[in-house]
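Here is the promised in-class demo. Please do not try to memorize the tokens; focus on the logic of going from shape to residues.
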């Protein structure tokens, strides 16, 4: 049986697509409404999700289409009446760049003001109720980082700030992103499209420009790329993904060196990938052996990828060992591999320690396991480092892509079709 999930604006819009792909014998398993989320959930209509199936077995299809089976299917909830808007918000959320933002709806600012005013009225009502219930008690001073505190004089800017805090962006980082809009107030009558472009552009500018592995062949100048980081973040799997992409997609010759001899499983894992891809792999047990093996691999490959052992930022001895290894790799590109699920404070300490060894770009792993992407933005902003690649699953090589600043920006601002976690269900390699 073939089962597929379809999502769209309405049943009427989805049925022709289902009939075309699955045929007239398709069976509708369920029809659900998916509420809109993100800061624009105030204005966006819920989408419809239809699960359909088709089966070559006529007897089974007859059973599925029986009155008893249909009675058990989930009926769609009643549609919620919403005030029609002058334009569809999907235009701004489904595409990238200034052109898409220019096509945003003109009434969004007015609706955002109404939403913000409603929030203010509700909060005022709560405060009045609390004072009535506890007369004579002075109201508690609101926490400085409380997202309900009105920090900005423009409702749209405040909504962006609140949404970033919900994504665990630090208040100081969110304020830095919005610094050019601090003086904007409701009386400014500024076009909402300019506000969106300013905030969106600020995030993209902070994330763009990482150093990537060069996919152009340069004869006689093999690149050397070193991967470092704490234990358990997925360095070896990340190297396997990059090896596959560089070999299969870009046609480059890849050599592998593993210095992660503390974990036998890591060596065997990388050897397995090397055998599958037909790559030459060397095992290095000390910095003294590195030059010999590196020279041999550079002579016949376009790129040499080096896996190092996981290093705790608290272990001074292991960090010193890595420093000695770097001394024989002066012209290499270096990537610090970090898990986005790690606490921000720990990420900051890790970055500070490795920053003393060498300059580097970052690779963030396990985006599919994270609830939010705020820590990625926090580290890039505060540490002044660039994220080059992200990974979001165990599939080799599919679950890796170069950093997409527009995707991260849309997620942090709730612009990604209401999806605050674009990597939860995978992405595209690149």
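The designed amino acids, position by position:
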């Amino acid at each position: 049986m073939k089962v597929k999930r379809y999502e769209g604006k309405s049943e009427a819009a989805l049925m022709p697509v289902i009939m075309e792909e699955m045929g007239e014998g398709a069976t509708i398993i369920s029809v659900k409404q998916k509420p809109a989320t993100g800061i624009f959930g105030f204005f966006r209509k819920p989408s419809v999700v239809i699960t359909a199936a088709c089966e070559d077995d006529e007897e089974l299809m007859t059973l599925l289409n029986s009155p008893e089976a249909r009675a058990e299917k989930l009926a769609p909830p009643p549609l919620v009446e919403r005030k029609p808007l002058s334009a569809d918000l999907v235009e701004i959320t489904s595409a990238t760049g200034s052109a898409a933002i220019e096509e945003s709806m003109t009434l969004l600012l007015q609706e955002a003001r109404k939403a913000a005013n409603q929030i203010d009225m509700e909060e005022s009502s709560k405060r009045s109720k609390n004072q009535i219930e506890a007369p004579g008690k002075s109201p508690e001073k609101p926490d400085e980082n409380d997202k309900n505190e009105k920090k900005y004089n423009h409702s749209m800017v405040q909504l962006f700030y609140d949404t970033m805090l919900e994504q665990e962006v630090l208040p100081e980082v969110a304020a830095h992103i919005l610094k050019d809009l601090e003086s904007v107030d409701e009386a400014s009558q500024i076009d909402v499209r300019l506000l969106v472009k300013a905030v969106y552009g600020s995030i993209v500018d902070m994330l763009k420009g990482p150093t990537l592995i060069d996919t152009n062949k340069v004869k006689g100048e093999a690149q050397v790329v070193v991967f470092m980081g704490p234990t358990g973040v997925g360095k070896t799997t990340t190297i396997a993904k990059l090896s596959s992409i560089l070999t299969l997609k870009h046609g480059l010759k890849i050599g592998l060196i593993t210095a992660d001899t503390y974990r036998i499983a890591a060596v065997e894992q990388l050897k397995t990938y090397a055998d599958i891809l037909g790559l030459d792999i060397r095992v290095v047990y000390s910095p003294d052996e590195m030059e010999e093996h590196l020279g041999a691999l550079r002579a016949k490959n376009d790129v040499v990828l080096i896996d190092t052992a996981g290093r705790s930022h608290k272990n001074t001895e292991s960090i010193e060992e890595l420093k000695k290894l770097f001394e024989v790799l002066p012209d290499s590109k270096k990537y610090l591999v970090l898990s986005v699920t790690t606490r921000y404070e720990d990420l900051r300490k890790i970055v500070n320690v490795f920053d003393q060894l060498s300059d580097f770009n970052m690779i963030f792993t396990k985006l599919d396991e994270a609830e939010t992407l705020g820590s990625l933005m926090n580290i890039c902003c505060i540490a002044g480092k660039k994220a080059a690649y992200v990974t979001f699953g165990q599939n080799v090589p599919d679950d890796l892509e170069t950093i997409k600043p527009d995707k991260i920006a849309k997620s942090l601002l709730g612009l990604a079709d209401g999806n605050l976690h674009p990597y939860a269900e995978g992405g595209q390699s690149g």
